[in-house]
Amino acid sequence: MGKAPKKRNLADKVRKTKTSAEIKNNPFEVKINRKKFDVLGRKSKHDVGLPGVSRSKAISKRKETLLKEYKQKNKSSKFIDRRFGEYDTKMAPEDKILQRFTMERQRVHEKKDVYNLNEEEELTHYGQSLAEMEKFNDIVNSDDESEEKGLLSAELTASHFGGGGGLLRKKTSGEQQEEQEGAQRAKTRQELIEELIQKSKQEKRERQVQREEAQELTEKLDQEWKNIQALMVKKMPKAERADKPEEKPKRDEYDMMVRELGFEMKAQPSEKMKTPEELAKEEREKLQKLEADRLRRMMGDEVGDGAQSQIHLSADDLNDGFILDKHDKKTLAYQDGKWNLGEEEAEEDEGEDEEEGEGDSGEEQELDTEEEDEVEEEEEGSDEEDGHSDLDSEQESENEEDKDASAKLKKTLTKEEMRAQQEAAKSELPYTFAAPESYSDLKNMLRGHTSDNQRLIVARTQKSNHPSLAVGNKLKLQKLFGFLLEYIGELAVRSPPELTTIDKLIEVYALCQMFPEAACKSMQSILGDAAHSMEEATEAKGHAAFPTLDMLIYLKVTALLFPTSDFRHPVTTPALLFISQALTKCPVRSLRDLTSGLVLCCLAVEYISFSKRFLPELINFLAGTLHLAVQDKASVVPPFRTSGKYSDLLVLSSSESCRSWSKKSLPLSATQKTERELMCLSTCLDLVKRCCLLYKDFPSFAHIFQPIRTLLSKHLSTQMLPEPLQKLNSEILESISSAPATHSALVFDKKKPIPLKLLTPKIVEVLDYGKKRGSTREEREEQRLKHKYKKEFKGALREIRKDSRFLAREKLNEVMNRDAERKRKVKELMGSLATQEGEWKALKRKKKK
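Above: the chain's sequence. Below: its structure in token form.
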């Protein structure tokens, strides 16, 4: 089905009914061609156009030319006589007829003699003429037959296909006479072929008989050979065979390699990769199983044997759920000439150990079952003996006392072991923990445990409350992260601070990776509170104190948990800003403040180690720290001062105590002033060296470190410093001086620059606008022809596009007409069928009546 044609023809019909005056006066039919500019004295023919009129003229012209050609395409309405010489006026009619007859005879002759061979040519095969060779249509059907096999004899054919009566009936005298006459006359080719077939059959039967006779003789000879072969074999005696060991053939290298390949390990398929949810589920199940085993050991039950032991069911068991915990049967034994009942002793022991719990009773039950098993084994052993049990009864009665004593000793030992096992199970950490709901719950859970145990508790709490195991676990673990941060701060504030426990509690990294948004908010709140308190202190007092140890640890944890190389990060960027503010606004008033500032400098270097971001507060603080070790000070940037009470904190008093100094870690409670001063100075020089390595690629490297270079080379006396610090000082000066100068200073040029040559422009007056000047006549003619060619080419393309659109519309009209005709015919057929069906139904109803 095609699309409906556009209703452009309707406007054409209306336009045809109008006169030319009406069209020209109608403003909707007129198109005004605007000009770029008016030229005086020039008359234009195309100021006003009539697109509707031109379109209708073009459509009518195409209908008369292009549409007619399209409809007459692949159609011929005239006959063309293609006979020979029909349009040749020079030939006579007789010559035309003769030539036509000759051509017809040649055409027929060529068709007949396509497969005929020329009689004059003689075809040969291996030098013999094909005409003289005999024609034998032999068909060989089997490999066992000879060359002449495969053809049927006349008798056989007659017997199989002639009814079978020709060979059995007697020949009459007339037939015998015909045979004699046939023998006297010459044999035909068919008779010769039949004789040849008969001979071949005869030879075949003879060969078959010979083959069967040879087969019978061969079988007979084989049977006789088997009878003789038993007499020819020489048997060796057993003694000789025992003396001569059998020589086994040596195995070939190939056989050995094949056997080795058989014992090699074959590749086994690996297990599928498990999802994090499956791993968390398995870990939780493992912890629950270990916790159940620990609780069972606390209660005194056996863990290993109880889970794996199988319960024996008797053949008389009714399977009604009744379990006999103890045997009611009493064990009879003699001790000191009196009866000894094991059950009474067991009851007494139970009465003594009731306070210990259920573990002892379980152990006694197990011991009773062991004794009963021993009794059963003894009974089984006595049953297996044939008749000697009565002889051994005396020996058994003598050894009963020894067995009872050993059983009592074993019983007491197992009780002690069971008690020790219960105590060990009670002292063990639980394997599953509930997530704490508050900070006090976390403190109670971790109180009294070592640092390793606290790490285990946090890890097991995290595994037991994985978010994939329950719906509310995600919120619980997010709270746990905040509680752990608060707990780390409390550990840092204690005196002395528990740094080893803080080091072990870096399990918060896994929680941070699991919940980055919650971790980000927690750290942002801590940093925001610290920055707010610093701003309040600065506004109130004009200066602020250095951050305490808990805040320094929080800054270190931030560097461990979050990336520091990002250009902008919601956690590390505020942390770096806080460090910069602390290095700028906090004055140094003691060695403790200086130590806190150097720790902040170490953290700042760690933050910028990957990004190599320039931090001017870091360089300023290191330069100020070096000024504290110099007496003649130059200009210093705040928070340091050139003079005052705290301006000479690192100035060394005696050089003798400094010579024996070596770099080592100092405890937080160190009181020796000289060692602390040298340690701070060493840390400062080490940080300066690291900053030199970080910023050595900067263009302004020499200018940044110029104050530090001047301070180290001129003001700091290296004679009073120990040898390690002198070495650090020389390395820093060498790295600063070896930096290449990447730029030169700006100076005025000595000579003025030479200006470029200025050429006077060539002015050409153009009087006639639109005409191109400055070319020959031939070039102008060539340009005119090119312009005309382009114009005609564009016009031809435009007309071709219009023709193709016109043909497309016509084809669409044809399709629409065909579809409408088909619909009309289908409608007529359906109407006639409906009429027939209605008549048939009316006739059917009429018959029913």
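The chain has a mean pLDDT of 76.
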